[in-house]
Amino acid sequence: MTYSNEAKSELLGVPPETIDAHGAVSNETAAAMAEGAVARAPVDLAISVIGVAGLGGSAAKPVGFVIFGLAQRDGPTRTERHVFDGDRG
Q1: Which residues neighbour 84 within 8 Å (Cβ) at sequence distance 6 or greater?
Q2: Is the pLDDT of residue 1 over 90?
Q3: Residue 29: how many CA atoms within 13 Å on its side-chain side?
Q4: Sheet containing 77-83: which strands, arranged edge to edge?
Q5: What do you get for the CA distance between the two ends of the chain, in Å?
Q6: Per-residue pLDDT, 87
């Protein structure tokens, strides 16, 4: 699990500049996380999940806001955004 920004950078290679420019919960960060997992593990496909699970939230990123990243070795990277009902509980 790479909950902190430091873990995202250290374990998955997400550039701190990506997090600074776009935020920890962004399409760019979700894509970089999935791409980092493919680059560092013996896998051909990786999925990342980031979001707001009940601590804070905003109009742009409300509680329940989630972004999925999907990276394929030698293939395209995609992200998808969803807002789910409910909170962390």
Answers
A1: 64, 66
A2: no
A3: 25
A4: 45-51, 65-72, 77-83
A5: 19
A6: 64
